[in-house]
From TrEMBL:
This is Peptidase M50. Belongs to the peptidase M50B family. Keywords: Hydrolase, Membrane, Metal-binding, Metalloprotease, Protease, Transmembrane, Transmembrane helix, Zinc. Pfam families: Peptidase_M50 (PF02163). Its cofactor is Zn(2+). InterPro entries: Peptidase_M50. The lineage of its organism: Bacteria, Bacillati, Actinomycetota, Actinomycetes, Micrococcales.
Length: 390
């Protein structure tokens, strides 16, 4: 039940069945939800039977009704995320109901800490409001205890639990996104907020494991009772989910921080230029020989006004016999550059990645141009290594 900010481009859609649209985005029920629904029905069935033994096998029908109510509450949780995200300028891509509850995927780039805070907090508050509604409805029924009363009580408890649990201050929970926004507001760095909330998320996961070991296993054994192994296993699965999400958040925060330091001019290879029509021999002479520790300059073929047209292909050059280099033009051994792909040396961070994705046209090499003059060649493979190395 977490929001999922994503890149500007639409992320891959979750596999499943589209039930409708909210905030302009599809509502998707994934196949894993059916597994979760069956398991939860079987888990809650015996509990319902203990509360109302007269139901018999109908207890599982009541249990299934409760599971549907629970996921309806999850759906409203995600709707709240989606509506506020759209109101804060985000593009909502999907609302998915999954084995873990659900998620809302959106993009657009959170501009302020307040945006992240509002998008995150509204989900748990929706569950807390639902819990209050179920509770007041239960109180209005009087003292009788029947199936509707049981469902109202279960709805109140489950929504209160979901709301409070999601407010725990660690990613990937909504409370972690709230903490991220708070740290972002204090430090001015969203990346710092993400990393801090990720580490707190790991502490939350560890706390869930400790709670399961002590409360569900150790204490019952110490009191001569059977340990609650099934609930301990569920707690372990939840802890694993939180730990994995927290670890991913830490990696994403560090990656964004490193990306923010990237600059096209600093990543680019040095260049020398030769005019269109020059020979291979002239190009090699212009490049010269790199000294110890120096990067070999790339040779850029330029046209009128210094417009970068192509880059010399060293592999193709090596295939030209030395005696033919004075007669072979550079256009025969050069790789064309994509028109309009040039980038300024100061362009960096996400702006650089967006520019490369939008204008490189699948080419590996992009010219770096400053005041109309080619100052470098940016190899997209080097950019990718810089991003992965974070």
């Amino acid at each position: 039940m977490n929001t999922k900010p994503s890149a500007r481009s639409a992320p891959p859609r979750s596999r499943g069945w589209v039930l409708g649209h909210v905030a302009g985005a599809p509502v998707i029920v994934t196949p894993s939800w059916f597994l979760a629904a069956v398991v939860l029905t079987l888990v809650f069935g015996p509990w319902v039977l203990r509360q109302m033994p007269a139901l018999g096998t109908a207890a599982y029908l009541v249990s299934a009704t409760f599971v549907i109510m629970l996921f309806a509450s999850v759906f409203l949780h995600e709707v709240a995320h989606a509506l506020v995200a759209r109101a804060r300028g985000q593009e909502v891509h999907e609302l998915a109901i999954t084995i873990w509850g659900g998620h809302t995927a959106y993009s657009g780039g959170l501009a302020r800490p307040l945006d992240g805070f509002l998008v995150a907090v509204v989900g748990p508050l929706t569950n807390i409001a639902l819990a209050a509604g179920f509770w007041f409805a239960l109180q209005g029924r009087g003292a009788g205890f029947d199936v509707p009363a049981l469902l109202l009580a279960a709805g109140a408890f489950s929504n209160a639990f979901v709301g409070v649990f999601n407010l725990l201050p660690g990613l990937p929970l909504d409370g972690g996104q709230i903490l991220e926004a708070v740290v972002w507001g204090i430090t001015g760095s969203r990346n710092t907020g993400t990393v801090v909330a990720g580490w707190v998320g790991r502490l939350v996961a560890a706390g869930i494991v400790v709670w399961a070991l002590v409360w569900l296993l150790a204490l019952p054994l110490a009191n001569g009772m059977a340990p609650d192994v099934s609930r301990a296993l569920i707690a372990a699965l939840v802890a694993a989910f939180v730990w994995a999400g927290a670890s991913s958040a830490i990696a994403a925060g560090r990656r964004r921080e490193a990306i923010s330091t990237l600059r096209a001019g600093e990543l680019a290879d040095p260049v020398v230029t030769v005019p269109l029509g020059a020979t291979v021999a002239a190009a090699l002479a212009a490049r010269g020989v790199a000294g110890p520790g120096e990067a070999m300059s790339r040779v850029v073929v330029v046209g009128h006004g210094g417009l970068p047209l192509a880059v010399l292909d060293d592999g193709a050059v090596s295939a030209v016999p030395p005696e033919a280099r004075e007669l072979t033009g550079v256009d025969a051994v050069a790789v064309p550059l994509v028109a309009e792909s040039a980038v300024g040396p100061e362009v960096g961070g996400q702006d650089l990645l967006r520019h490369l994705a939008a204008s490189s046209g699948g080419a590996r090499l992009v010219p770096v141009v400053d005041a109309g003059r080619v100052t470098g060649i940016l190899d997209l493979a080097r950019v990718a290594r810089a991003v992965r190395g974070t």
